[in-house]
Records
---
Amino acid sequence: MSPTAKAAPREEPVSRSHPPTVRAGLVGGGLMAKTHSLAYASLPLVYGDQHLPQVVRRRLADVEQPLAEAAAERYGWDEAATDWREITRAPDIDLVDIATPNDTHAEIAVDAARHGKHVFCEKPLAHQVEDARTMHRAVSEAGVTNQVDFAYRKWPAIQHARQLVARGEIGRVRQLRARYLHDYAADRAVPIGWRFTRSRAGAGSLGDLGSHLIDLARFLVGDVHRVMARTFTFVHERPLHRDAAAGATARLGRVDVDDAAHVWLDFGGGASGTLETNWMATGHKTDLSFEVTGDQGALRFSWLAPNELRFYSELDATDVQGFRSIIIGPQHPGAEAFWPVPGQGLGWGDAFLISVRDLLAAIAAGVPAQPDFLDGLRAVEVVDAALTSAATGGWVKIGGPAPQ
Ligand SMILES: NC(=O)c1ccc[n+]([C@@H]2O[C@H](COP(=O)([O-])OP(=O)(O)OC[C@H]3O[C@@H](n4cnc5c(N)ncnc54)[C@H](O)[C@@H]3O)[C@@H](O)[C@H]2O)c1
């Protein structure tokens, strides 16, 4: 069927346990639509022997009709739509995948959960804490599978780092140092999109890049108890539209989010951490890196060498002590199904493939997915506390007991 044709919704029951197929609807036809579509399309090729449900790419919705139609056609979706309710309320959809700007996630996710759909949502879960709480409550009450797309924590080298920490290979964790630097906003002619507007994004580099680091900090070390932060806005006005010809005469809008942030983390129990984000860091391209230091060793990771984890152990003889390089291969978590030869390497798109593999496995088994909406809520709480700290000074405590 042509992506432009709108068929009457089929009256098929929503499948629940061990479904042979999962009928997906994707909301948002932008950058993430490509990564998610590629992941669904690749599932049977990479994970064909894992008895996962087959994903049917039923419908893609975007408010921009030409974009919806082009994305549906290009990324292999049966139909295009402009209203996300044609996905959240459709009887022929089991899984709602949300890849829209941050301020739209809550309304879509809550509606999907209330209509009994499983929900996969892009990060950050929401642009404000209250929305993230509502989303967590909605999926919990509906009992649907829910997952946030913190794809970096699915990355084999990072999964392996977590295993080594859990096995006590670096002893008691004392410190985490993490940074995510980029230069995609370095040019002051980059127009004001939703990412530069607090009411749409929630935060700037701290939400866009930092929420990944916060999730990694929680994954590798544990829950964050309190934070202290400083944020920086380097460019206060940007063009409203991309128009190279307009030059100095371009109409400008106000940027009200951070371009960069420094955040201090207190995990309690003596462990601490620092995060640095900057989307105007000239020369840095997807420079996500971290080091975890324990009393018996340390781990280092950099996305610039993503198929490598570096490990230092105090137990090594002193004359050979030093960071050793572990090259990722099929013996590492998440990488098993790809290539039989260590060192052949995985790439960014594969992170999303591992993410949706885990999501589908959780749906099929009827078990909770990871990271779930509670993890998403916790990350939003840390961003919010960091913004409060930056505005008021001093330490700010995070959240409270897990919401019911
Ligand atoms: N997991 C990751 O590594 C990662 C990477 C990039 C972006 N993201 C997240 O993915 C989400 C989308 O980011 P993006 O870069 O794809 O954005 P984008 O701006 O490229 O695309 C968003 C699309 O959503 C559409 N849209 C907006 N409101 C809508 C609505 N109400 N209904 C339907 N469509 C709507 C827009 O027209 C646009 O085409 C954001 O939350 C972002 O933070 C995650």
---
Amino acid sequence: MTVKRLNKEDRLRKLNARIPVSLIREEEALEKKLRKPKLSPLNGLEMIYGVLDLHMQYTKGLTACSKGCDFCCHMEVAVSRLEADFIAAKTGYKPSVNGPSLALSNSKQYCDEKKPCPFLDQIGKICSIYVYRPMMCRTHLSFEESNTPCRFDAPKDSPITLLDRAKSWPSALRGYFLLIERHGGGWADIRDYFGKWAS
Ligand code: SF4
């Protein structure tokens, strides 16, 4: 019997089909909680990360991402003030107050082998703040068959099919933007906030 190999669009579809209704309901209930004005944005963000961790189990076998692949840690990593404050609260690293500088809609993504994220452990090629990493890192998932396009020597225009956050995890994403707005926005590249771990 021939086993049909899934292409990247099939893999994305398969992810959406795998997500159980119970988790979709949980995500919707979370969005309602996040809308309560008394909820601390930092606590809300932690709740979102908890639900996303549950989602992650359904990506198993569908993405090209794996431990030790650090390509996307050399890209621009857009972080809000809320996420910077969350990392600070959990790790003790203090973000630069001059961080906010990124106009998200106008930003041109870059990838520079010489400009890794300050939290990348370059020896082990792992994230040193993995549990507290920002949304951009949690949801930057490649649905390519392998990580070949995510190599510094890959052709610059290699298309990479990424998770469609709004399609797969819509309520979590809406809640995330809501909290960020409530916390004052403040987008910057992670290097602007935590270059050499700032202080
Ligand atoms: S926070 Fe962690 S996962 Fe995100 S870019 Fe930095 S090292 Fe990579």
